[in-house]
From TrEMBL:
Domain Proline dehydrogenase as annotated: residue spans: 46-297
Swiss-Prot/TrEMBL catalytic activity: L-proline + a quinone = (S)-1-pyrroline-5-carboxylate + a quinol + H(+)
Source organism phylogeny: Bacteria, Bacillati, Actinomycetota, Actinomycetes, Pseudonocardiales
Keyword Nucleotide-binding: yes
InterPro entries, per database record: FAD-linked_oxidoreductase-like (IPR029041), PRODH_bac_arc (IPR008219), Proline_DH_dom (IPR002872), Proline_oxidase (IPR015659)
Annotated organism of origin: Amycolatopsis thermalba
Transmembrane region(s): none
UniProt keyword terms in alphabetical order: FAD, Flavoprotein, Nucleotide-binding, Oxidoreductase, Proline metabolism
Protein name per its UniProtKB record: proline dehydrogenase
Signal sequence bounds: none
SUPFAM superfamilies to which the protein is assigned, alphabetical: FAD-linked oxidoreductase (SSF51730)
A Pfam family reported for this protein in Swiss-Prot or TrEMBL: Pro_dh
Required co-factors: FAD
Documented EC number(s): 1.5.5.2
Length: 307
């Protein structure tokens, strides 16, 4: 992994750097580009605009690694309030939610996270929408897949995420490319050791294409989460090759990243879902975005300097 990326990802876990970034004037402009506000009301307003542009959405209430059951409970309550609000605004048909199990208590107790995820999924079912479980660092992969398997026994529509940078992922894709399953394929956003993850970008891209082939030739519903123009071109060709009709798979991109491309693909009739994070705990999420792309870091530094 390139040293700058490792450094920024290491800073994502530092309380001192978090405080520094949060209190630096100019940060809020950068946060606003990637994060859709602090509250449910703000997020739902922004989402309404995306839906007006024929985009689909998955909403993520920011927060990870809770250390107290009460924090996990607060996360559940926020998701339930969010789902009610989406239903009330008539948005639930186009807007689902993404959930990090660590924010539901995974590191405290897997059973607690499963019970909390059940409550969020039951709320989503009542509102007529779906849930996708985000994937976090490799120490949580097995537990996340176990919880996903449990939830899918009741709700086969619960989506999972697989990360192309993990060496194990092709096997996981094979297990999940089954009827009704919704699988988001991404490159992977965490600092991982060489034993478990490919470190060279080219190896990750090759793994992404191998996994995409498996998903497109399988019976599930693939959700391709990437901004990479080369991969998007390959995916379009591969989808045609496997006889996939538009709507039998989707593209996903992050809020604030390549918005013109999101609209271009939607204009061509593709299903495009935007991953929209909101909430006060934006720091680790923002740092992962900065680590992904030097241009994001430059944008951040320019915003600070231009104050
Ligand atoms: P990169 O390798 O970052 O970039 C490749 C190319 O894409 C660049 O060279 C450039 O041409 C283009 N590009 C990238 N960013 C930009 C930009 N800002 N502006 C213009 N062009 C750009 N990771 C997880 O670990 N777990 C998850 O659950 C998860 N969920 C995700 C959900 C969604 C919808 C998305 C889009 C990503 C998610 N990720 C997740 C993050 C993902 O793993 C990658 O870290 C992230 O998407 C960057 O990889 P990339 O495929 O976009 O390409």
């Amino acid at each position: 992994m390139n040293p700058l990326r490792s450094l920024i990802l290491a800073a994502a876990g530092s309380e001192v750097v978090r405080h520094l970034v949060a209190t630096t004037p100019g940060t809020s402009g950068v946060v606003e580009r990637f994060v859709a506000g602090n509250t449910v009301a703000e997020a739902v307003t922004r989402v309404g605009r995306l839906v007006d542009d024929r985009l689909w959405v998955t909403l993520d209430y920011l927060g990870e690694d809770v250390t107290e059951p009460a924090q996990a409970e607060q996360t559940v309550q926020t998701y339930l309030a969010l789902l009610d609000r989406l239903y009330a605004e008539g948005l639930a048909a186009r807007v689902e939610v993404s959930v990090k199990l660590s924010a539901l208590g995974l590191r405290l107790d897997e059973r607690l996270a499963l019970d909390n995820a059940y409550r969020v999924c039951a709320g989503a079912e009542q509102c007529g929408t779906t849930v996708t479980l985000d994937m976090e660092d490799h120490t949580t992969t097995d537990a996340t897949l176990r919880v996903l398997g449990e939830l899918r026994r009741t709700w086969p529509w619960v989506g999972g995420v697989l990360q192309a940078y993990l060496r194990r992922t092709e096997d996981d894709v094979r297990a999940l490319a089954v009827p009704d399953s919704r699988v988001r394929l991404c490159k992977g956003a965490y600092a991982e050791p060489d034993e478990v993850a490919f470190s060279r970008a080219h190896e990750v891209d090759l793994s992404y294409v191998r996994c995409a082939n498996l998903l497109l030739s399988g019976d599930g519903y693939p959700m391709f989460a990437t901004h990479d123009p080369r991969l998007i071109a390959i995916l379009a060709e591969r989808a045609r090759w496997y006889g996939r009709k538009q709507g039998s798979y989707e593209y996903q991109m992050l809020y604030g990243v390549r918005p013109d491309e999101q609209r271009r693909l939607a204009g061509e009739g593709e299903t495009v879902r935007v991953y929209v994070p909101f909430g006060e705990h934006w720091y680790p999420y923002l740092m992962r975005r900065l680590a992904e792309r030097p241009a994001n870091l430059l944008f951040f530094l320019r915003a600070l300097v231009s104050r």
